[in-house]
Write a structure and sequence with these properties.
The complex is a heterodimer.
Chain A lengths: L11 E2 L4 H4 L1 E5 L7 H19 L7 E4 L2 E2 L18 H13 L4 E5 L10 H4 L2 H11 L2 E5 L4 H14 L4 E2 L1 E3 L14 H12 L3 H4 L3 E5 L6 E10 H7 L12 E6 L6 H4 L5 H12 L12
Parallel strand pairs in A: 1-7, 2-3, 2-5, 5-6, 6-8, 10-11
Antiparallel strand pairs in A: 3-4
Helix pairs in contact in A: 3-5, 5-6
Chain B lengths: L1 H13 L2 H4 L2 E4 L26 H6 L2 H8 L9 E3 L13 E3 L2 E8 L4 E6 L4 E2 L3
Parallel strand pairs in B: 1-2
Antiparallel strand pairs in B: 4-5
The chains are: A alpha/beta, B alpha+beta.
């Protein structure tokens, strides 16, 4: 008599698609878009949704911070110049997005700076629990500063569900990537593919590149990574990069410039660095000298 | 700017990340506030484009990663100039946490691909 072996449970967890959940929720866990960029991004999303869904009599609800997309937001940007809102409000919106009973696709409207400031809240179990609970019900997308959230979400999910790999999407963001240069339509199309497809090979295109080294090989591994600056800022925290054997490391970055040249233009570079030192606790009990 | 990239790569090496990974994909690093570098002049002509900051200083972007950053010593498959991230051309979506196949076997043309593996997936409904 033969015994049928039970297939092992799938290890990849890919949250529901936009076709299934019918809610697209744009959040701003980092910086705010300019008003003109905000409405431009909303307009593109609305027209793409109409183009793709309304002819099939399907309705997709477009939300911003889980609320009405047409309302003007971010009244605090004049005070918090490089943040979309206070840390507490950005955290509240993040929790609201992932703890919603209605499944959704959650997309960062733009990057910039600010997600690392939420790490001190993520260290609180009651905060993290609310977010982890919704990670497999809400498909998450973003890049650049969202690298911090990708790291936290993937690692916290794996801690709670050992052996399971949460898939999050590193991809374009509507308030910047959709119109920053002409002819972004292919990016928009691929973004929607990643949001609506349920099969991985349909949701994600093959990526071409140049081979760097002569050690020509074909390897299989789990892809992790993102913005180089953000990944390095995660080192020393609970959410530093995995050191597993089957990792394919992906890196990209913008403005990889030093503090001295960018302080004037982007003051958040300074808080970025100080936030890092606070998170890794090197500053505890030490005096900090700022020259 | 390139030395700052090298500093970051050195830190990745020093904290043990480079030693741990089995492959690498380098996306777009082209946009910079470096006033000497005009990103609007980037073309699709590949790494030998003289307007590229890497070509200007190191002959090619490949030389920078291989020799300056020392990535060739890792002896792992590495893909670079992948159209992902902040860039002037494309920002292809990728699935973080998913299994991919990194193919660097095309020795003749030195072109490679990163392709998602269609493992069985759970979708939480």
């Amino acid at each position: 008599m033969t015994t049928l072996k039970q297939a092992p449970p799938p290890s990849n967890i890919f949250p529901p698609s936009l076709n299934h959940c019918k809610i697209l929720n744009i959040i701003f866990p980092s910086s705010a878009p300019l008003k003109v960029e905000y409405f431009k991004g909303i307009k593109i999303l609305e027209s793409e949704i109409i183009k793709r869904y309304e002819r099939n009599n399907k309705k997709i609800k477009l939300l911003v911070n889980s609320g009405n997309a047409s309302e003007e937001i971010y009244s605090l940007t004049e005070v918090f110049t490089f943040l979309s809102d206070t840390d507490e409000m950005r955290l509240k919106n993040l929790i609201k997005a992932f703890s919603s009973a209605d499944t959704s696709v959650v997309v960062c409207g733009r990057g910039g700076y600010g997600a690392i400031r939420l790490f001190r809240y993520f260290e609180q179990k009651e905060v993290m629990d609310q977010i982890i609970e919704g990670l497999d019900k809400h498909r998450f997308m973003g890049f650049s500063d969202a690298t911090f959230l990708h790291q936290v979400f993937r690692l916290e999910y794996a801690r709670k569900h050992p052996g399971k790999h949460l898939i999050t999407i590193h991809g374009p963001m509507p308030m910047t990537s959709f119109f920053s240069i002409p002819n972004r339509q292919r990016d928009i199309d691929l973004t929607f593919n990643a949001m609506v497809e349920t099969e991985l090979n349909l949701a994600f295109p093959s990526v071409a590149g140049k081979v760097l080294c002569c050690c020509s090989e074909k390897i299989r591994g789990r892809l992790v990574g993102g913005s180089l600056t953000c990944l390095l800022a995660c080192e020393g925290t609970k959410w530093s990069l995995e050191r597993e054997e089957d990792i394919i490391l992906f890196l990209e970055d913008i403005n990889v410039s030093g503090l001295s040249t960018l302080l004037i233009k982007n003051p958040y570079n300074f808080t970025f660095l100080t936030q890092h030192y606070f998170r890794v606790s090197y500053s505890t009990g030490n005096a900090i000298s700022i020259r | 700017m390139p030395y700052r990239l090298d500093r970051f790569i050195s830190q990745l090496r020093n904290v043990g990340i480079l030693k741990a990974c089995t492959g690498m994909v380098l996306g777009d690093f082209s946009i910079t506030t470096d006033t000497r570098f005009d990103s609007s002049k980037i073309t699709n002509e590949g790494e030998n484009n003289n307007n590229n900051m890497f070509s200007r200083n190191f002959g090619s972007e490949g030389n920078f990663w291989r020799i300056v950053c020392g990535l060739q010593d890792l002896n792992i498959p590495i893909l670079y100039q992948a159209a992902i991230g902040h860039g002037n051309e494309q920002n292809l979506p990728i699935a973080l946490g998913a299994f991919y196949m990194l193919d660097c076997t095309n020795k003749e043309e030195m072109n490679g691909t990163l392709k998602i593996v269609s493992d069985e997936c759970s979708m939480m409904l």
